[in-house]
Amino acid sequence: MLPVAGVIVGVLALLVGGYGAIKASGLQKKVDAQEEKVAKIDGIESQLGTTAATADKSAKDIGSLSRTTQEAFNTVAADLGNIHASITKLEEARKAPAAGKGHADVVAGPGEYVIKAGDTFSKIGKAHGFTGADVASVNPDVNPSHLKVGQKIKLPVKK
């Protein structure tokens, strides 16, 4: 009976061993599938690290670009302010008579005269070979007692 019991135990051992081998093979397949997933997760983790580094660099670049742009705007604004001030000065200088020059930029054309300080129709007429009345007759709209420096008047035509 002992040999029969040994055979039965041997058969049972083979059955348990075969069952264990089948289960071990199934577990190996599951482990292999999990290793693929772990490898994919490792790859994604690596990409995530690279992406995070790129995002940090981009954030720093954007900050630097923002500061540089603001500095450029500040410089342009200051230059525009200076240009505006220069244009304003030029416009004011164009409108206002030159100080101390007494409207020197007014130019008399042919048959015209530009009033200077101390001028009267008599002085102007005498200087050009006319009478004060001759000068007044060609300038009926000009008040001889209110002549202004730089004002243009007409001169009579010589006969």
Distance between the termini: 171 Å
The shape, in one word, is: rod-shaped
* Overall pLDDT confidence: 87
Q: Helices and strands: which structural class?
A: mainly alpha
Series of H and E elements: HEHHE
The tally of strands reads 2
Low-confidence stretches: none
Proportion of helical residues: 55-70%
Count of helix runs: 3
Nearest-angstrom radius of gyration? 54 Å
Major sheet description: 2 strands, antiparallel
**Strand-residue proportion:** under 5%
- Strand ordering within the main sheet: 1-2
Description of the molecule:
There is one protein chain. The chain has 159 residues and is mainly α. Among the domains are: 30-96; 112-154, Roll (Membrane-bound Lytic Murein Transglycosylase D, Chain A), CATH 3.10.350. The protein contains three helices and two strands; from the N terminus they run αβααβ. It is rod-shaped.
List the helices and strands and how they pair.
Layout: H1 2-95, E1 112-114, H2 121-128, H3 132-137, E2 152-154
Structure summary:
The chain has helices at residues 2-95, 121-128, 132-137; strands at 112-114, 152-154. It is built from 3 helices and 2 strands; from the N terminus they run H-E-H-H-E. Strands 1-2 form a two-stranded antiparallel sheet.
